[in-house]
Write a structure and sequence with these properties.
α2 runs parallel beside α5. The protein has two domains: 79 residues, no CATH class; 39 residues, no CATH class. A hairpin with a 5-residue loop joins β1 and β2. With 165 residues, the chain is an alpha+beta fold.
Length: 165
């Protein structure tokens, strides 16, 4: 397809929408193309011919990963520290308030009890261990380096082993 025909298909609004889609969520090429109304072949052809478009996509994806890194770090921090949240429990019963046009009873829910419960989520021990191991591998190594320098057999001599049998 000629460059001029590709440029006609891909206007500035479409390009900005594509960049926004990639920046705000993780989409496949097919999903992006469907959202902007182009064929995947047009997308790939334009990307191959237009460095600015390709760079724009890569930059949008990089911004998406930066956002996800922040979200993951905040979530990790919350799980490491523990957190509190509030649950609201509502009990109600239906009270008859009259009848509708067809003569059927009409009910209205009335709150009979409202209870608010504050809950605390403990920090995750497993996540704390995982984080410490990954942040300070030297001090929190899973495997210890052990070297044996003694020349004696580890399980005794051959005659010692034969005696055991």
């Amino acid at each position: 397809m000629a460059k001029s025909r590709l440029k006609d298909k891909m206007n500035e609004d479409m390009l900005n929408k594509i960049y926004t889609l990639y920046e705000n969520d993780s989409y496949s090429v097919a999903e992006v193309c469907e959202a902007v109304g182009i064929a995947p072949s047009t997308f790939y052809a334009f990307k191959a011919e237009n460095k600015h478009f390709k760079d724009g996509i890569l930059n949008a994806i990089a911004r998406f990963y930066e956002k996800m890194d922040v979200v993951a770090s905040r979530s990790l921090k919350r799980k490491l520290e523990g957190y509190e949240y509030t649950e609201e429990h509502v009990t109600s019963k239906n009270i008859e308030v009259g009848k509708d046009d067809k003569g059927l009873k009409v009910f209205k829910p009335i709150v009979t009890e409202k209870k608010t419960v504050k809950k605390h989520v403990q920090p995750s021990d497993l996540l704390i261990i995982f984080t410490k191991k990954n942040l300070d591998e030297r001090r929190f190594a899973e495997k210890q380096n052990v070297s044996i320098t003694h020349e004696q057999p580890l399980f005794g001599t051959d005659t010692d082993i034969e005696d055991l049998l």
